[in-house]
Amino acid sequence: MPLGLLLGLARAARRKRTSSLDILSSKRAPRNYYKGKNCKPTGFHTRKGGYVVVQEKLPNYVVPDLTGFKLKPYVSQCPIEMKTAEEAN
Hints:
Strand content: 5-15%
Structural class: alpha+beta
Number of helices: 2
Oligomer: single chain
Largest sheet: 2 strands, antiparallel
Helix content: 10-25%
Distance between the termini: 75 Å
Strand order of the largest sheet: 1-2
């Protein structure tokens, strides 16, 4: 009897939860909970209600010079069928 009880408890502990109660969202949390969108702040709030943007926290994208580059930025969804060297022989 105790062995069956222990096996049942172990089986229940291993089973995954079917509901999403473990995922904390703003609907399942207290009123003042704000989850956000997982992005980093780009500045800080001042005492008088303003917001100061810090330039070091802004993303800096380095784009190479693409003059004379053969490929186009668009890739077609309907590619042209090309013959390979094996099919030509």
